[in-house]
Amino acid sequence: MFITFEGPEGSGKTTQIQFLAAALREQGYTVTQTREPGGTDIGDQIREVLHTLKNEKMHARTELLLYTASRAQLVAEVIRPRLAAGEIILSDRYIDSTLAYQGYGRGLDLTTLRLILDFATEGLKPDLTLYLDISPEAGLERRQSAAKQGAEWNRLDALALDFHQRVHVGYQTLIQLEPARWVVVDGMGRVEIIQERIRQAVFPRLPRRS
Ligand SMILES: Nc1ncnc2c1ncn2[C@@H]1O[C@H](COP(=O)(O)OP(=O)(O)OP(=O)(O)O)[C@@H](O)[C@H]1O
Ligand SMILES: [Mg+2]
To answer: Using CA atoms, how far apart are residues 135 and 132, in angstroms rounded to an integer?
Structure first.
């Protein structure tokens, strides 16, 4: 089973995915937790190029191709082999992030994006996508206070609020297009309560252990 986490900056994806991975392992599942961009040695090198604030000149098409290159490597090297071995894969972001950020956020053509994504992943789609629902303002506020405590503040965090608002609208559109794949989880409230909402969405959908 392939489960992805999506949502705006600061919505709690990285926080929640770790707790879910631990809960699934406790139930006896073999879990691989990964993230985008990155998740492989090559992908982590691409992540650095994408995130560093010094690359502010990066063109939207360059950005798209770098994210997609990182993803192609992740699918080939990690996700497909481990799915074939019967593992549960949890990914912090996947193709929907590209549609939301580079499509709705940057304004790149969505039909072209879908073709490129399909090529890069050989059509691999998640079985379930958890959307951590929080306003872009609230998410950015969380990220800003985390950055003050020493957390990374990257090139995408630094984009203007209207960009993040387009991303938010983009996600809502993606959810409406494929409601069966998505579960929208209220991302406001205490970490433990949000984790409980996530488990309630995931556990009934799990494959039986062999
Ligand atoms: N439920 C919550 N309430 C308040 N703060 C939270 C909550 N969940 C996470 N945070 C804090 O908000 C910040 C962002 O959380 P996190 O890194 O998990 O979000 P993210 O969705 O992974 O963000 P990004 O898209 O930037 O990677 C962190 O400092 C985290 O500790
Ligand atoms: Mg994160």
So the answer is: 10
